[in-house]
Write a structure and sequence with these properties.
The termini are far apart. Strands 1-2 form a two-stranded antiparallel sheet. The protein has two domains: 5-50, no CATH class; 63-106. The chain has helices at residues 36-52, 59-106; strands at 5-7, 15-17, 21-23, 31-35. The radius of gyration is 38 Å and the shape is rod-shaped. It is an alpha+beta fold and 112 residues long. Bound molecules: zinc ion. Residues 8, 10, 12, 14, 34-35, 37-38 line the site of zinc ion.
Length: 112
């Protein structure tokens, strides 16, 4: 006699007709261990877990981010230093220009 029903190994644990189990070659009676309903529920749970529960951050990842932030901080400091140098150079240059302008303006008009 051919088997037409089997027990679901999923959460329902019900004995269901084989048509309720997806075909699977290596499975008992050529069917999956869990019924379609349980499979779908599991898939949904897996998906929900993936999207809602954040993965715990490993020490390696923490270190990576710490290192990353540290490096970013260094870069910002570097840029700020460069900017400060540029500002100093800029104001020095501005002084020279203003000084030259002043001298230019104060230069007596020498008739040619
Ligand atoms: Zn089931």
């Amino acid at each position: 006699m051919e088997v037409e029903e089997k027990r679901c190994f999923g959460r329902c644990g019900d004995i269901k007709p084989l048509t309720e189990f997806t075909p699977q070659k290596q499975g008992k009676y050529g069917r999956a261990a869990r019924c379609r309903v349980c499979n779908a529920a599991d898939q949904r749970d897996k998906h929900a877990k993936k999207t809602t529960v954040p993965k715990p951050i490993s020490e390696d990842e923490k270190n990576f981010f710490r290192l990353g932030t540290h490096k970013a901080d260094d870069r910002v400091r570097e840029l700020e230093k460069a900017l400060a140098v540029m500002k100093t150079a800029n104001s020095a240059l501005l002084e020279i220009i203003q000084d030259t302008d002043r001298r230019e303006a104060n230069r007596p008009n020498i008739p040619e």
